[in-house]
Design brief:
- The structure is a single chain.
- The chain has 208 residues and is an alpha+beta fold.
- Among the domains are: 99 residues, Tumour Suppressor Smad4, CATH 2.60.200.20; 41 residues.
- Helix content is 34%, strand content 22%.
- The protein has a six-stranded antiparallel sheet with strand order 2-1-11-10-7-8, with helices on one face. Strands 4-3-5-6-9 form a five-stranded mixed sheet, with no helix packed on it.
- 17% of the residues are buried.
- InterPro entries: FHA_dom, SMAD_FHA_dom_sf.
- Keywords: ATP-binding, Coiled coil, Motor protein, Nucleotide-binding.
- It comes from Biomphalaria glabrata (Bloodfluke planorb).
Length: 208
C-alpha cells in the first residue's frame, strides 16, 4: 500500500493518507474536493498533485505552492521514493511509505528515526545551505583563497628566479686577470740622483 505518513510531533498522533493513481492535496475549502485535506499557513486551496506512473510516485506543486522533498524546495514535477520526506506548506511534514520501492537502489532512507524534529532540522540545514548570504560569503572565501594561492605562486616563481640568478653568478668565470707589469727601477730613482751616484763611483775607483 502506498501512503504518506505525517512526521509525528510531540504529544500528537501521526496521520496517514493513502496515495491513489491521482491524489489531490489542498485545503478543505478548495473548489475541487481534495483527497488529502490540510490547513494552516502556506497551504493553498489546490496545493499539489501526487501521481503514480509505472509504479513510480511523482509530486507536482501547483501555482508555486510550497512543497519540499528531503528539505529542498521543488518547483516542478519530481519523482519521490520510499522514505523521502515531504513538506507541504510551512509545517506539514510527511514521509512516503511505499514498500514496493523500499529495495530500490535509489531509495534514500536515513538510518535515524524520522520524526517532526528530524524533518524540521533537515529543512533548516538545506535552507541555510541555499541562503543567498551564505552563498555570497562562500564566494568571497573562495575568491580569497584563490588570491592567496596566486600570491604564493608568484612569490615562489620570484624566489626561483632569484636563486637561478645566484647560481649563474656562482658558476660564471672569475674576474679576468690583468697583465703582469715588470718592475722598472729607473722609475723609482730620479735621473739626476742616478748620475750623482755614478760620478761618486767613478771618483772612488780613481782614488783606489
Amino acid at each position: 500500500m502506498r501512503m504518506v505518513v505525517s512526521a509525528k510531533r510531540p504529544s500528537t498522533l501521526s496521520l496517514a493518507f493513502r496515495i491513489n493513481d491521482h491524489t489531490l492535496v489542498g485545503r478543505p475549502d478548495a473548489p475541487t474536493q481534495q483527497d488529502i485535506q490540510l490547513s494552516g499557513l502556506g497551504i493553498q486551496p489546490e496545493h499539489a498533485v501526487v501521481e503514480m506512473e509505472n509504479n513510480d510516485v511523482y509530486i507536482t506543486p501547483l501555482d508555486g505552492a510550497r512543497t519540499c522533498v528531503n528539505g529542498s524546495v521543488i518547483h516542478e514535477k519530481r519523482r519521490v521514493r520510499h522514505g523521502d520526506r515531504i513538506l507541504w506548506g510551512n509545517n506539514h511534514f510527511f514521509r512516503l511509505n511505499c514498500p514496493r520501492l523500499a529495495n530500490s537502489p535509489s531509495s534514500q532512507e536515513p538510518e535515524q528515526k524520522i520524526d517532526y524534529d528530524f524533518a524540521q532540522q533537515e529543512l533548516m540545514e538545506k535552507e541555510l545551505v541555499n541562503d543567498p548570504i551564505q552563498e555570497a560569503i562562500g564566494a568571497i572565501e573562495k575568491q580569497h583563497e584563490e588570491d592567496k594561492q596566486e600570491a604564493l605562486e608568484k612569490q615562489r616563481q620570484m624566489y626561483e628566479r632569484q636563486m637561478q640568478m645566484l647560481r649563474n653568478q656562482l658558476m660564471s668565470p672569475g674576474t679576468p686577470s690583468f697583465p703582469l707589469q715588470l718592475f722598472d727601477a729607473s722609475k723609482l730613482t730620479p735621473t739626476g740622483s742616478q748620475n750623482s751616484i755614478q760620478k761618486k763611483y767613478q771618483q772612488w775607483a780613481q782614488e783606489r
